[in-house]
Design brief:
Blueprint (H helix, E strand, L loop, with lengths): L1 H12 L25 H10 L8 E2 L10 H16 L21 H11 L6 E4 L2 H11 L7 E5 L4 H14 L2 E5 L1 H4 L3 H12 L4 E7 L11 H10 L3 E5 L11 H4 L3 E4 L12 E5 L1 H4 L29 H17 L1 H19 L5 E3 L11 E6 L4 H10 L2 E2 L1 E2 L6 E4 L6 H16 L1
Parallel strand pairs: 1-11, 3-4, 3-5, 5-6, 6-7
Antiparallel strand pairs: 2-8, 7-8, 9-10, 10-13, 12-13
Helix pairs in contact: 3-12, 4-12, 5-6, 13-15
């Protein structure tokens, strides 16, 4: 037990290391920025590149992103190309195979690593954040009594593996009451974790942005706390990647999972798993195939999920290129302006109650709100009558509105008009 504790302490103290695994061609450099177009012009063009009717306002990116036609076209070309050349591949080496799950996909990993401030050897391509977090939760050697700190507002796909390990291995999972700490701002959230940390703290697992209320967590401070206590930091970035800039080396977390099919607008069924190089050799492979025990191949060892579609990788590459072309700073600026417009308007409407924290330091592109006396489904349906898609979160919270780049200020004003009419009824 003491040797394990010493290892974790030494691991947490290590600097973030660059990966060394290199194989195959590097990804292309990012495309040039989109000329001198204004934010409004740029994102209006993107809105016209979506498949659903123009009159629909889509505000449910927190569940699934709307894939632009250029991403869909890349998928279709990839699928057609695979089927047209299927007999040609001689299977002498894995690179370029007409399937995923066995080949390193270094070009896609390099592009994703550049986008996220990491190294290709530290990134594995998965199917979603749930798969990535399960690989982390299943991959560690837990001992009864090991402690994991998280919150009571984590997505089921992230926290459930630790609930399973509590039942199976006897770890101690503490789901801290986030809503009690959030009114005190970022410092109060960090202090809640600090106060709850016991002598057998093994990991802190939190969302970068929470799914239901869109709370932008003070992850840098929580990562630092984990390192200080000789514990691991495991971050769920499903609601962050594509919504805001993410630099994994700057954050210094031990592991990070993402679902590019949300805010990055990548194909459904694409995911990313980042594992710092020093941790990789101490993490068991959950899905085992040929490379399961080959630590020299870096995070490729965690991509052994069997046959998958290369067309999804083509779409992921197109989505990454789109994000780089628009720049995450520009996307975040637009999204946060929409979220501020929405919150400012909601705060002026009687009977509206914000479920998301009022502290703007915790704000993200997700805002959850309700109208007093109106059920969540009724509020969702009232907005859908005006062709505005949000998602109900329960009557105590209301509806979740995800303000992403294909939403315009005029769309937010339409939302406010519907809500005001409902509140006045």
């Amino acid at each position: 037990m003491e040797s394990r504790r010493q290892f974790l302490g030494a691991l947490a103290a290590l600097p973030v290391l660059a990966g060394t695994f290199v194989e195959g061609p590097a990804a292309a450099a990012p495309a040039a920025a989109a000329g001198g177009a204004s934010d409004a012009e740029l994102f209006e063009r993107l809105r016209r590149d979506l498949a659903f009717p123009r009159e629909v306002t889509y505000c449910n990116t927190g569940t699934l992103g709307a894939v632009p036609n250029e991403v869909m076209d890349a998928m279709v070309r990839g699928l057609r190309g695979t089927e047209a050349t299927l007999p040609d591949w001689p299977y002498f080496q894995p690179d370029g195979e007409p399937l995923t799950g066995y080949q390193p996909l270094l070009a896609a990993r390099t592009a994703a690593a550049r986008f996220l401030g990491a190294d290709a050897a530290e990134l594995a391509i998965t199917q979603n954040a749930t798969m990535g977090m399960n690989m982390l939760g299943n991959g560690l050697d837990w001992q009864a009594g090991d402690e994991v700190l998280t919150t009571d507002q984590e997505h089921g796909g992230a926290v459930s593996i630790f609930r399973l390990q509590a039942k199976r291995r006897g770890i101690v999972l503490k789901e801290l009451p986030l809503s009690k700490a959030a009114p005190g701002g970022p410092a109060a959230i960090v202090e809640m974790f600090r106060s709850a940390a016991g002598p057998r703290l093994r990991a802190i697992m939190v969302s970068h942005v929470t799914s239901q209320l869109g709370i932008r967590m003070p992850v840098a401070e929580l990562i630092a706390l984990a390192r200080e206590r000789g514990a691991l930091s495991l971050i769920d970035g499903a609601q962050a990647v594509g919504q805001m800039p993410v630099d994994l080396h700057a954050l210094g977390c031990d592991a990070y999972v993402a679902s590019p099919h949300k805010w990055l607008l990548a194909p459904k069924g694409t995911g990313l798993l980042y594992v710092r190089a020093p941790l990789q050799e101490h993490l068991w492979t959950t899905l085992a195939s040929y490379q399961w025990d080959h630590t020299e191949v870096g995070a490729f060892r965690f991509m052994q999920y069997g046959t998958g579609s290369t067309a999804l990788i083509d779409g992921l590459l197109a989505a990454l290129a789109l994000g780089e072309r628009h720049t995450m700073e520009r996307i975040e600026r637009w999204n946060m302006a929409l979220a501020a417009r929405l919150r400012d308007g909601l705060e002026r409407i009687p009977r509206v109650v914000l479920a998301s924290p009022g502290d703007r330091r915790l704000a993200s592109s997700i805002t959850t709100f309700r109208v007093d006396g109106v059920g969540a489904r009724d509020l969702q349906n009232a907005l859908w009558k005006q062709r505005i898609r949000v998602r109900a979160q329960g009557d105590d919270k209301g509806v979740r509105l995800s303000a992403h780049i294909y939403v315009a200020p005029a769309d937010i004003d339409r939302v406010l008009g519907v809500v005001a009419a409902l509140a006045a009824a």
